[in-house]
Amino acid sequence: MAQIIGIPKGTRDFNPDQMIKRNFLFDTIKTVFQQYGYLPIETPAMENLSTLMGKYGEEGDKLLFKVLNSGNYLSRVKPEMIQEESLGKITTQISEKGLRYDLTVPFARFVVQHRNDLSFPFKRYQIQPVWRADKPQKGRYREFFQCDVDVIGSHSLLNEVELVRMIDDVFKQLNIEIVIKLNNRKILSGIAQTIDKPEMITDLTTAIDKLDKIGLEKVYEELLQKGFSKENIDYLAPIIQLQGDNGQKLEALQGLIGHTTEGSLGVTELKTVFQHLSTLNIKAKIELDQSLARGLNYYTGAIIEVKALNVLIGSICGGGRYDDLTSIFGLDGMSGVGVSFGADRIYDVMEELELFPENVHHTTQVLLVNFGEEEVGHSLLLLEKIQQSGIRAELYPDSDKLKKQMKYADQKGIPLVLLVGEEEIKSGSYNLKHMKTGLQENITIEQLIKMINISL
Amino acid sequence: MAQIIGIPKGTRDFNPDQMIKRNFLFDTIKTVFQQYGYLPIETPAMENLSTLMGKYGEEGDKLLFKVLNSGNYLSRVKPEMIQEESLGKITTQISEKGLRYDLTVPFARFVVQHRNDLSFPFKRYQIQPVWRADKPQKGRYREFFQCDVDVIGSHSLLNEVELVRMIDDVFKQLNIEIVIKLNNRKILSGIAQTIDKPEMITDLTTAIDKLDKIGLEKVYEELLQKGFSKENIDYLAPIIQLQGDNGQKLEALQGLIGHTTEGSLGVTELKTVFQHLSTLNIKAKIELDQSLARGLNYYTGAIIEVKALNVLIGSICGGGRYDDLTSIFGLDGMSGVGVSFGADRIYDVMEELELFPENVHHTTQVLLVNFGEEEVGHSLLLLEKIQQSGIRAELYPDSDKLKKQMKYADQKGIPLVLLVGEEEIKSGSYNLKHMKTGLQENITIEQLIKMINISL
């Protein structure tokens, strides 16, 4: 009896073709991380809800996948609670754990919990899936992978420089052309200060962050709606519309917001970062974007965002500096800075631009045809010899028709097929078929091994 | 305000040291899998409960971690239900998804769901965490990793031979001495048939499977308790206590159960597997164990179990053939055979026997000391040069005291520290400290790069 089968919406199976490409992507990223001295950690899929709740705002709390307590989870639920429909109250009674929503909060929890065993500055990377009960849509999943790289316990702007270099390296190696946008929270604070509305910084940045998407007019509309005056907007206009290269923009910002404490600090920090970067060999386009806010309130210094050129897709990497992250778990004074690579979006970019290298597939290099019981013992010995020389090889397990075995090789993308029949065994010279060209040749096992190992 | 922090019981954080060792373990296993033509897949952490429930027995259902539905999950729960305490009924109303309990059932679901896109025999491996609400204890976790390798869609016993070869290869490369125990469900059926109790095969195998743990007397006791007669036990005694090498055991089994249909088939299958293996270069000890059942009812042919020698720990790898796995999802006739490597236990064995190679750590190879703003620009250029030659290097981000920077290198296990001070910059010859010996030498960057690349 057939059953309707499937997987939860917003989740995915990855088949071998996708997995091999994904592994190529992750391996490239990991290798760069290691090159710069970052070390891997992993945290559990489930965290205590006390760790997660309240860290992502009210909306975030709703998007957490909550796990039912084991055993009689209802023991503390009274029927009246259902009548009152006090969902939140019941949830805390029946669920203590949730699936992680991102890697940042678990990392902060990890640092605080293990602070006595870590040496600071602690440079870590972490590549794991995260889960959000978001409405699934094209390119947005309920289970997706984040690749986070952070350094915690250092205020030095050299970390910002390093992150930009790593971003450049990763995308250089993946052959993706990018622009890296940089800003600093202190620039945004400075802007809010110049119009004497420091307390309205969130409304201000949320509005001007949308410049790319909705255009100047709509940004002004939103600002007015949020309670900024016409005068404010006149003052903001030249800041929002800042033009020129990064040096020119910095000069202009110095004039426009340099008189505020925060603004002046922000300009200085950005100048330092740009100055270091200018001496180094960076391929990516780097752009000061004074409207960049990334909506996240916990950034306190640098704000970083990466967009792919030549393709219509949102940001593929982003992050910044957060001075207070571990203070939510009671550990103050731990400044951190890091970025997160959006693996799923980067994958989509690479598929769209056909950037996965052809030889990324680590499939079987040679298939030995199975001619039946008589020949199979000999084939096994050949197989062992071939594999021991480091070649990926397999013997077709059943003595199916030759056509079926050839089709198997073809579908699996196996480039070479070796026919080990009665005659071949006698002569010690086997018939090798090149699947791409259809060419056949007679070859000894030693010649075959040599041929494959040379062509690597 | 400090908050009590921690992670759910039975789960773990992995620090860099553990991660690097775990990655070494997984990479070794993956490389062997690929060598034999197996390809990776991954499935979502959450599966529909309709996929999972009923597949692991009543006990298994209880151990599933169930995920609360999003939104107003209570909409279908009535207060009366709470009063009736109908836990199961309420659970189905408020939870539709669960965390995967193993990789076998998701794999069966995957095969059925994607059967039109797969070419059979389909050889796949899958390395992912699984979750069980088991009582945590030493060596048993609520989140742990399985490494499964299976071939589905082939009845050939060559697959069994291949699995034994792969097991041998994996543990040979990990330097773990093992014994591979082999049995066949048909041997167990044959035994049940010879005493005319085929319907009691589960009770029979459950009891004799415990031979190693509880000894002969207790096994007999359990059999009597389960309703087997004294006469049955007299007949079973020589079968249970079978001695000798594999050939002798097979001969004896032929005499004892060869007259039953199943018993005869079982002996023939085992003979074929042993015959092939005898011609190949296998390092592990291979042992026919006629009492091996692995408690799992879905095995229909081969049963495989691996134990590490020289260490007191349960099985570290096991599996077998299951002819009907995909039929639970409506697809018949798909015979599969595979094994699962218990990554966490293998890790423990390697730690206990100190088998992780010393050079497994891919930490930073050289640290550049930070002497302050004046020198840092020059250091960045050197760093870039060193990294571009493929060396893992980092510049300490802050101009902390030398002692602190040295301590950082020491704790992170960085073998070389380069001092880039004012004098050194002028001369182009830098002071290099070998952390292990304490030796110092003057060296140019070109010499440093050459030195590290040669020592690899």
Could you give a short description of this structure?
Chain A is of the alpha+beta class and about 450 residues long. The first copy, chain A, is about 45% helix and about 20% strand. Chain A is globular and about 95 Å long.
Describe this entry's structure for a reader.
- Two copies of one chain form a homodimer.
- Chain A is α+β, with helices and mostly antiparallel strands and 456 residues long.
- Chain A folds into two domains: 16-45 and 101-352, BirA Bifunctional Protein, domain 2 (2-Layer Sandwich), CATH 3.30.930; 363-455, Rossmann fold, CATH 3.40.50.800.
- Chain A is 44% helix and 19% strand.
- Chain A is built from 18 helices and 16 strands.
- Chain A has helices spanning 16-35, 49-52, 57-63, 79-84, 87-94, 104-113, 158-174, 185-194, 201-208, 211-225, 230-240, 246-257, 261-279, 343-352, 373-388, 402-411, 422-427, 445-455; strands at residues 39-40, 46-48, 66-68, 95-99, 122-131, 143-152, 178-184, 285-288, 302-308, 315-322, 336-342, 366-368, 393-395, 416-419, 430-434, 440-443.
- Chain A has an eight-stranded mixed β-sheet.
- In chain A, helix 8 (185-194) packs antiparallel against helix 13, helix 9 runs antiparallel to helix 10 and helix 12 runs antiparallel to helix 13.
- Chain A is globular.
- The model of chain A has no long low-confidence stretch (mean pLDDT 92).
- Chains A and B meet through helix 1, strand 1, strand 2, strand 3 and helix 4 of A and helix 1, strand 1, strand 2, strand 3 and helix 4 of B.
Biggest interface: A-B, 111 and 112 residues
CATH architecture of the largest domain in chain A: 2-Layer Sandwich
Order of strands across the main sheet of chain A: 1-5-6-11-10-9-7-8
Rg result of chain A:
29 Å
Named CATH topology of the largest domain in chain A: BirA Bifunctional Protein, domain 2
CATH level-four homologous superfamily name of the largest domain in chain A: Bira Bifunctional Protein, Domain 2
Number of helices of chain A: 18
Number of E-state strands of chain A:
16
Principal-axis shape of chain A: globular
Q: What is the SS-derived class of chain A? A: alpha+beta
Number of domains of chain A: 2
